Every structure is written in C-alpha cells, then in structure tokens.
Amino acid sequence: MLALILGCIVAAASGAGWPLMSTIFGGLSNTFLSAQSSFGGDAWNNDSSTSGATMSTITSLNSSASASSGALDQISKELFLSQTIQYCLQYTYLGCGVLVAGYLQIAIWITVSERMMNKIRAKFFEAILRQDIAWFDEKQSGTLVTHLSDAMERIKEGVGDKFGLLIQYVAQFFAGFIIAFIYSWKLTLVMLSLTPLMALSGGFMGKMISSASRREQELYSVAGAIAEEVLSCIRTVIAFNGQKRESDRYENALQTGKVEGVKKSIYTGLGMGVVFLIMFSSYGLAFWYGSTLIASGEIPRGTVFTVLFSVMMGSFALGNAGPSIALIATAKGSAHAIFEIIDRVPAIDAYNRAGKKLAAPRGKIEISNVSFRYPTRPDMTVLNGVSIAAEPGETIALVGSSGCGKSTLVNLLLRYYDVTSGSIKIDGEPIKSLNLKWMRNLIAVVSQEPILFDATVEENIRFGRQNVTHAEMMKVCKMANAHDFISKLPQGYKTEVGERGTQLSGGQKQRIAIARALVRDPKILLLDEATSALDSESESIVQEALEKAAKGRTTIVIAHRLSTIRNADKIVVLAHGEVKEVGTHAELIEKKQLYFDLTYSKTGEELLSGARFWSLMFLGLGVLEAVTWFFSAWLFGVAGENVTMKMRLSVFKNVLRQDVAFFDDPRHSTGKICTRLATDAPNVKAVSVFISKHKTYIETARVVQ
C-alpha cells in the first residue's frame, strides 16, 4: 500500500511538472518582450526572415496593447540578463525534478505490478484447483491456460507503468487547467467550452474498447484451447496425418479473434480522432480570443502564452491518456474473466474446513436409492434408484455396458458431484457431512488412463502422500510390481517420466499409479477399468498388483474383462442406470441372465466417443471514415493482428511438422508451447500499437521462411 501511495505521488509530481513549465515560459516571454520594447526591434530581426516575421507579429500585438494600456515596462540589460538566467535555472531545476519523479514513477509501478501479478496468478491457480468437477465439465483446459498467460499479460499492462502514466496525465491535465484559471479565467473558460465533448468521446471509447477486449480474449482463448488439445495429443495427430486439418482449425479460431482485435483498433482510432479534433478546435478558438484580450490590454502578453501552453499541455495529457485508458480498459476486460473465477465459491468446496472427521474409519460404503443427472446433461438420467452396500474389506465389482453408470458411481463416491436424490454413506455418515479433504484422503483411485506429471518417478509417487519415506515408497512399489522396472531406469526413482509419462510404457505408468494410490494407505480403493488399456502381458502383471493392493481394503472394481473379477465378493450388474443383478460370479452364471450374456458374449464392450461441436459466428466489422488518428489506429491494428496471426499460425504449423522426439524434450512441453503461442505474438503486436501512438512510419522487413 505504501508503494502504491508513493507511486501515485511521484506520478502526480511528474505530471504537474510539465504545465509548470508554461509559467516559466510566460515569465520569460514577458522578459523578452519588455527587452524588445527597451532596446528596440532591430537586434531581434537580424537572425532570419522567419524570426523577423514572428517578432513583427508580436510587435504589432505590443503596439495594440500599448494603445490600450499604456507604455510597456522598461527593463535594463543587466536586469534582462539576470531574469533570463533565473528562468533558465528554474527550467533546469524543474527538469531535474521531473527526471527523478519519472524514474521513481516507472520503477515503483513496474515493481508493484510484478508483485500484484504474482499474487493474482497464485490466487487464480488456487481458485481453479478449488472448483468442483461440474465446473470443469463446462470449461476447456486450453481456455484456462490462455487466461494464465495472455489475459494475465493484458492485466499486467493495465496495472503497471501504464497506470502510473495515466495518473501522470491526469495530474498534468488538472495542473494545467488550474494554472490556466489562475492566470486568466476568461481565456481558460473559452478553451474549456469544448471539453465536455472530449470527455464524452473518451468515455465512449473506453467502454467500447473494454467490451471488444473481453470478446477478443474469449475468442483467442478458444484458439488456445485448440492448440493445447492438439499439442497434448500430437502423436495421434501425426499418426493420422492431421497436421493440415488441425492447423486450419486453429487458423479459423484465430480469424475470429482477429476480427475482434480489428474492431478494438477501430474504436480506439475513432475515439482518439474525435479527441484530437476537439482539442485542436479549442486551440484555434483560444488563439482568436487571446489576441482580442491582448489587443484590449486585459491581460499581459506573457499570460497568453502561459494560459495557452498550460491548457495545451493539459489537453495533450488528456489525449495521451487515451492509449493508457485503452490498455486499462483491455485489462479490465481480461480481469473480469479472471476475478470471476477467483471469486467463485463452488458448491463442493475442497477448501472448506467444515465437516466431520471420523476417529476410526473402517471403509463401509452404503449407496441408498441414488439417482443422478450430470449438470451438463440435466435431461438425461444416468443413475436411477441404485442401491449397493459394501462391508469393510469387501471387493465389489461393477459390470455393464458402456454408459450404464459405473464410472458415475465412482465419481459420486469421490464427491465430484452431489447426488440428485438418495444418499451415499461411509461408516454410516452421509458423505455430505464429512470433511471433504479428509474423506478423499480415505480413498485412492486408479483410473483407466494413468495420469503422471512431468516430474520424476519419486515425485509422482509423492503426490499420493508428501511425507512418505523412501523405504515406504519402495515397499508400495514392490506391492505394485513396480520396483524392479524402476530400479532398471537410468536414474532409478529420480528418472524423469516426461510429459504425462510419455517415457514409460502403459503398464509401467499404471503400476506407478497403483503405487501412488497405495502410498496413502487408503481404506477404500476405487479401480476404474485399471487394466482395460493394457496388452495381455502387462494386464496380468498389473492385475496381480491390483489383487495385492485390494487386500484388507474396501474395493470397488469397474471391470473391463469379466475374467478379472471372478473372485469378487459381490458383483453388481448395471444396465440403463439401474441395478439388474447382484451376486457372486457362480450365482450370476447359474441364473443365466444379463451377467451370463455379458460373460459369454462374442463381442466385447465398445467405448462410445462423444463429438464436440463448435459454433462461433460473429458479425463482420463495419468500415468507418474518420480523421487521421482513426485511420492510423485502424490500419496499424490490422497490421498488428495480421502479424500476430501469421506468427501464431507459422509457429503452430512448424510445431506440427516436428517428429515425436521433439515433444519428448521437456523444453517443448505442451504448456510451454501454448504459453509461447499465447504471449509472444501479442508482445510483437504491441510494437504496432507503439508505432500507432507516436505516428512513426517504418518499413517491415520481409520474413524469409
């Protein structure tokens, strides 16, 4: 807070320094004009025809003023030199003060913004991890990655040195007009007559830019999601020669974002054009009215310069604040999506410390008349009146065709979702009444597709329990039939497994996942088709490890191959979200009903894949005509978007050309490539924004591909 206050003070001081120069300039002008009156005009007219013409005009005004107010003040050469030196020293002191204030302003605001962004990033990531699974069902991971990179950069631009510059410009604006009012309120009021129009145009510009920035972020988030999806599945893309198709899909998503970016530049150009049109119109009005005041002798000659330059600097500050306002408006649009997530408290809150913690949990499970609908599919009943009981240490197998609700039961046991009706209890307590974090520590899950992080084997196992000793780790790895192959790895337990475990085989990844589950010594073990993706040899090894892991624990098994659950204490057959049969393997075979048909069916289960439909249609932008500022901002905006789109697309296409070994390198992980796509191109676009602001024309070198 102290740094923010100090940053505001030095920014205001830096801004106020510019209008103060006009007071020095006005006094210096009075000194020069008095000297001309005292010493004669010949010495002032010898330098050039231009300066002579200028001073002739001033002399004419002097004559008019003299006729109205009497003779000009006389001044000696010594006094003239003394006053001139005094004003020069004042210029020097003021310049040094502005230099120090400007340095402190930028240094403080950049430091504050870096600290602020670190906190926002941490809180945003923490808020993401806090959300319930229903929220993730409606989001794409690529969109969240884009928020963490591109949107954060936009916020950083809005709260860093650009915000300090805005304070500087505001202080410069007020200081300029305060000085102008002090010296001549009449002339200042005339110049202010057009200011309301300038304020209205600036407010409209800020609102439109903020709205366009929000839409632009949303659309580029879609492109980021596509990039993350493709890069995370790069082997599949390469295997099916899908590089061209995926690059076209990415290009189409970028195109929609480009349209919104161009719209934003149009709004910026239109707003800035109107601001400068009004500003220069007020200057013309001031020159006309100021000349009449000088001629009538109402104000001294130098006062006109003081008022004119004070208002001019204040007005220019308002105009210069436009780009800063645009960046802050963009940051506001980006921050809206970020803080919407940060402020969201999920219905199932893993950070909530409330709830019971049982003293001696045993692992008894009671599922009573449970019905459930997914929040994203409220019209489809997935479970309907399901009731299952599991005593401590029992193994319960769930079988049935795809879509019958087996995995949904696992999700409900972990309380990823709350049941629509009915209840689920652990040791007689409804899971809603239990402390969520404590309850999930009782349960371990081994899924069909093992998820490993880009870390060492040891670090991946520690995700199960952070304080596990190396001896305990080796023990559970032996139980999971993983110790032998881990010992043969180049660095043993310190071996990097690669992104999502790409350096290991499917069976090896699954055994590490089993060890990670066992290291927390769970009372309840959930096995969700843990061997379905493995070959026969790997399956037998993993199945042996799973049987060891299940001993002494309440185990819920979702079976892919029915031969793996023959020894289960109880088999529950599900169909269409309902329990159809319950019994042991022998009992159900003897009944010769649904389980019998599943066991001896010639065709196995087939996994159904859902299709995602993308429909993003946006209206094209309208072509507007305005003054030079409008066209400048628009054309540079178009150029910037074209450059960033070409850069993103070229990088993306080039990445898709690489071989699989390229993606095995930790430096080329999905997250790092997506971050480069999201941040580097917008940083290049910022160059065009800088050029547009200063109206500097450059020739872009041709990029040799």
Automatic annotation (TrEMBL):
Q: Which SUPFAM superfamilies match?
A: ABC transporter transmembrane region, P-loop containing nucleoside triphosphate hydrolases
UniProt keyword annotations, A-Z: ATP-binding, Membrane, Nucleotide-binding, Repeat, Signal, Transmembrane, Transmembrane helix, Transport
List each copy of the ABC transmembrane type-1 domain by range: 5-330, 592-684
Q: Which residues cross the membrane?
A: 91-112, 163-183, 266-289, 613-639
CDD domains in alphabetical order = ABC_6TM_Pgp_ABCB1_D1_like (cd18577), ABC_MTABC3_MDL1_MDL2 (cd03249)
**Transport is among the record's keywords:** yes
- GO MF annotation terms: ABC-type transporter activity; ATP binding; ATP hydrolysis activity
Q: Where is the ABC transporter domain?
A: 365-601
Leader sequence range is: 1-15
Xref: InterPro entries: AAA+_ATPase (IPR003593), ABC1_TM_dom (IPR011527), ABC1_TM_sf (IPR036640), ABC_transporter-like_ATP-bd (IPR003439), ABC_transporter-like_CS (IPR017871), P-loop_NTPase (IPR027417), Type_1_exporter (IPR039421)
Example GO CC term: the record gives: plasma membrane
Membrane topology is: Multi-pass membrane protein
Q: Where in the cell is it found?
A: Membrane
Give the matching SMART domains.
AAA
According to its UniProt record, which protein family does this protein belong to?
Belongs to the ABC transporter superfamily. ABCB family. Multidrug resistance exporter (TC 3.A.1.201) subfamily.
Q: What is this protein called?
A: Uncharacterized protein
Source organism of this protein record: Plectus sambesii
Taxonomically, what lineage is the organism?
Eukaryota, Metazoa, Ecdysozoa, Nematoda, Chromadorea
